[in-house]
Write a structure and sequence with these properties.
About 25% of the residues lie in helices and about 35% in strands. By secondary structure, the chain is α/β, with parallel strands linked by helices. The strands form two sheets. A six-stranded mixed β-sheet has the order 5-4-3-6-7-8, with helices on both faces. It has a four-stranded antiparallel β-sheet with strand order 1-2-10-9. The chain binds 1-O-pyrophosphono-5-O-phosphono-alpha-D-ribofuranose.
Length: about 190
């Protein structure tokens, strides 16, 4: 099934990264986090809704020690295929971040608007440390476009890197569809 072109609403998408590569990359990230946070007292995995639920769940399942999970929903995209640059809070943070080591779990870091807004929010709330784990990093838009005065935040745990193309699957959607696909697909140039 994963080798086929699929259609979501009015667009066609071609296979991009298969499930096995995704699982392996997430396990590598989990192993690194387990090493880095073995002494952390109250670490928190903060999953951004909705896109990161699939990655965040798979990652959380592999984390060891006293990790807790929490959620937040910011929005930066409309119904189309490009970033609008706007970030608004749709579901407030579901946990107290004060004094905690927080790892933001993202499905994709594109312009970085979302993680920068979240980093500022967590710092204001007294997080002890903030790091970013993402299923996909698009290095080109992220390192080229960041409008943050002190430069882009480091991306501590990027499972996979991707070209600056529109991608669906594994939590990522096109107009609400495709989040349940078990692999990554990219928009066909037509
Ligand atoms: C998407 C994605 C990331 C963000 C990345 O969220 O889930 O959170 O955009 O883009 P950025 O680096 O340019 O900020 P979206 O607002 O589409 O919500 P969703 O997760 O519910 O699809």
């Amino acid at each position: 099934m994963e080798n086929r072109i699929i259609t979501l609403r009015d667009r066609r998408f071609a296979p991009y990264i298969p499930a096995e590569r995704i699982h392996a990359a997430i396990s590598e990230v989990a192993a690194r986090i387990n090493r880095d946070y073995k002494d952390s007292v109250r670490p928190l995995l903060l999953v951004t809704l909705s896109g990161a639920i699939v990655f965040g769940g798979e990652l959380f399942r592999q984390l060891e020690g006293p990790f807790e999970i929490a959620f937040v929903k910011l929005s930066s995209y409309g119904a189309g295929t490009t970033s609008s640059g706007r970030v608004r809070v749709e579901v407030p943070l579901t946990a107290d971040a004060e004094g905690r080591d927080v790892i933001i779990a993202e499905d994709v870091v594109d312009t970085g608007n979302t993680i920068h807004a979240l980093h500022d929010m967590l710092t204001e709330r007294g997080a002890r440390s903030v790091r970013v784990a993402t299923l996909l990093l698009k290095p080109d838009p992220y390192f080229r476009q960041s409008g943050r005065p002190d430069g882009p935040l480091p991306i501590d745990y990027a499972a996979l890197e991707a070209e600056p193309r529109f991608i669906v699957g594994y939590g990522m959607d096109y107009d609400g569809l495709g989040r349940n696909l078990g692999a990554l697909y990219t928009l066909c140039e037509e």
